[in-house]
Fold this sequence. Notes:
The structure is a single chain. The protein has helices at residues 7-15, 36-41, 60-72, 87-90, 102-115, 135-145, 168-176, 190-200, 217-227, 236-254, 256-271, 277-286, 290-303, and strands at residues 26-27, 52-56, 77-82, 120-127, 149-156, 181-184, 204-206. It is α/β, with parallel strands linked by helices. The longest helix is centred in the C-terminal third of the chain and has 19 residues, at 236-254.
Amino acid sequence: MAGVTDKPFRDICRQLGAAMTTSEMVSSEAGLRDSQKTKERLIFSEDDNLRSVQIVGSDPEKLADAARFNVENGAHIIDINMGCPAKKVCSVAAGSALMRDEKLVEKILHRVVNAVDVPVTLKTRTGWDLENKNGVSVATIAENAGISAIAVHGRTRACMYTGEAEYETIAKIKSQISIPVIVNGDITSAEKAKEILTFTNADAVMIGRGAQGNPWIFREINAYLETGLFIEAATKAERQNVLTDHIKKLYQFYGEYRGVRIARKHINWYCNMLEGYISFRKKMNQIDNADDQLAVVYDFFHQSKMEGEKAA
Ligand SMILES: Cc1cc2nc3c(=O)[nH]c(=O)nc-3n(C[C@H](O)[C@H](O)[C@H](O)COP(=O)(O)O)c2cc1C
C-alpha cells in the first residue's frame, strides 16, 4: 500500500508472520528514479527478506526497463500493478485502468516477463466496472504470458474502495487458471481468511488495511490455518513494544523530521482500541519531535486500558 507498506512496516509484518511483502508501487518512469520518494521505495540488496517490487505504468517498454532496473537493484520478484484505481494513476491509463485494454495488458505482460529472469506477478481487480468484470479474461492472458502468480482484489476499478469485496469472481478465476491465485480485499481476521480461502480455493491471502496497526494478523492467520485454533490476541504490552520498535524504525529510515510525521498515522492505527484515544490523538498529532512522541506513546499505554485488560 502506497504511503503505508514502507520498509519499516514490511519488516514488522515479516517478523510477525507475513510470508511475503511487496514494496509500495514505484513508477516505471526512469526520470523519477532519482526522486526521494522513488529512492525510498526501491529495494536494496542488503534487505534480507524476499524482495518483491511493484511497478506501475502503461508503456510496455518502460515497464520492462523498470523491471530490469529493479532486478539489478536486488528485486527477487517483480509485481505489476493493475489494481490501483487512484486518479493520478488511472488518468494516465495505468493501474486498474489498464484492464480496459486487454491487448495492451497482453503486450505489457509479455514484455515484462521476457525482460527479467525472476518471477513476475500481477496485482489486479475483478474487472473495470460491474458491467465489465473481465478478471477471468485478464487472468488467462496473464497465465499465457508467463505470469507466475496473480493477486486479485475483489472489487472492480469503478468500485474504488466502496461496498464489500466479492469473491465469486476470484473463485471463478481460480477455477480457470493453474498459476497460484492470491485472494485480496476486506480480509481482517483469521476466521475470514480461512472462510475466503475455502470459498475461492485460492492459494494464499493478501492482507492490506487489516494489518494497519495490527501486524499480528499474520501470525493469527497462520496459527488458525495450521491448527484451527485461535491464538491469544496481542497483549497491551506487546502492542506497546511493537509500536515503539516500529516508530524507531521509521525515525531511522526517514530521519527524525519526516519519521515523526509518518509515524503519526501508524500510532493512530495501533492506539485506537485504547481508552481515551480521541484526546490522545489530538495531542500526539501536534508533537513534532521524536523524544516527545515516544514519551507520549509510553504514557498513553501506561495510563489507558485496553478491552479486557487492566492499566499497567
Ligand atoms: C492507502 C492505500 C494504498 C494502496 N496502494 C496500493 C499500491 O501501491 N499497489 C497496489 O497494488 N495496491 C494498493 N492498494 C490496494 C491494496 O493493496 C488492496 O488491494 C486493497 O486495499 C484491498 O485489500 P484490503 O481490504 O486488505 O486493504 C492500496 C490501498 C490503500 C488503502
